Each structure stands twice: as C-alpha cells, then as structure tokens.
Amino acid sequence: MSRPDPHACSRSILTALLLAAAALQAGAASSTSSAVSDGVSASVGSLSTSVERSSNSSSRDDKVADGEYTVIEMAEAAGRPGQVRLTLQGAEQTFFLYVPQETLRQGGLSTGQVVAARQRAFGVEFAAGKPRRAFFLALHDGWLPELQTRAVTL
Fold first, then answer.
1. Which residue of 75, 109, 144, 146 has the fewest C-beta atoms within 10 A of its own C-beta?
2. Contact 147, 44 (CB under 8 A)
3. CATH architecture group of domain 6-147
4. Is the CB of residue 71 less than 8 Å from the CB of residue 112?
5. Run of H or E including 142
6. Which residues of 88-122 are buried (b: 16+ CB within 10 A; e: fewer)?
7. Distance, CA of 36 to CA of 19 (rounded, Å)
8. How many Å apart are CA 86 and CA 4, to the nearest integer?
9. What's the pLDDT band for 105 if we cut at 50, 70, 90?
10. What is the pTM of this model?
11. Which tens digit of pLDDT belongs to each residue from 79-98?
12. pLDDT tens digits for range 8-47
C-alpha cells in the first residue's frame, strides 16, 4: 500500500480552506487575491512575482529564509499599479516584497515594523503584529491554478 503524498494532502486542505473562506463572503470577489483577502484577511500572490532580491544580494532567486525582517522602506512599485514595494531586511538577507496597497491599509504595516516569514508547503507566509497575523501568502507558482476562481452552475 503506498503512502499518500503529503504535499497533495496539504494542498487539498489549503485549497478547501481558502475556497470555504471565500464562499462565506456575501459578495463573491472576482479574483483569487481579493477573495482570499476578504475571507481570511491575507492577500495572495505568486512567489515568483511577489519576492525579488535586492540589488546587493548575491543570489537572484525568490527564496526567503524563515525569520524576522524589519520593514526598512515602503515605496510605490514602479510599473505595478496598485502595488507597494516593501524592502525587508533580516540578519542575513534583504529582499523586496510586492503587496497590494489594500493589504497595507488592512494590515496596518509601517516602516520599522517587524515581519515574520515562514516557509509553508504552499510557499511563504508573511505575518506581522502581536500576536503574529498573516497578511500575505506568497504561493509557489504550481499552487495558483488550483485557486483560480471558477463559476459554478447549480
């Protein structure tokens, strides 16, 4: 008897939770990001488009180490309407995190605030505040198609 794939199980659970949270909303949102944001107070984005190494980093990938990062700058994201570029600095890593402007308004993020990054099966969870509360989920690209909004006919 073969063992179930733990990633498939985690993916199914996360997908079910996100879809249930979105379905509970009175006015269904038109995009995955806003549906999740409305339902669980966290925005969702692609890891490949939401995380970018700063120019002084030796590596150019989107890997983020678990840990705490200080928001050292918040700026309008050039060429990305409706997005803000957060510069996050940790003990060994500095990177940019692109989030929707609405996420900042809802989460109350500000310069000098500490943000925790945690690796999850689906990507990286970014949380702030006390107690820590997720404000942004950067998903591995393979997860995004499973979260696309689809019309359901009854």
1. 75
2. yes
3. Beta Barrel (2.40)
4. yes
5. none
6. bebeebbbbbbbbeebbeebebeeeeebbbeeeeb
7. 8
8. 38
9. confident
10. 0.67
11. 999 999 999 999 989 999 99
12. 555 555 555 454 444 433 333 333 343 333 344 578 888 8
Q: Locate 66 and state its tokens.
A: 């678990």
Distance, in Å, from the CA atom of 23 to the CA atom of 46, rounded to the nearest integer, reads 22
In the numeric block, which tokens belong to residue 5? 């794939």
Return the number of other C-beta atoms located less than 10 Å from residue 33's C-beta.
22
pLDDT of residue 104: 84
Q: What tokens were used for 22?
A: 């979105």
Nearest-angstrom CA–CA distance, 66 and 88: 13
In angstroms, the CA 115 to CA 7 distance is 26
Q: Which two tokens stand for residue 38?
A: 């409305």
Phi, psi of 11 (to 5 degrees): -65, -45
Whether the link from the prior residue into 145 is cis, omega within 30° of 0, is no
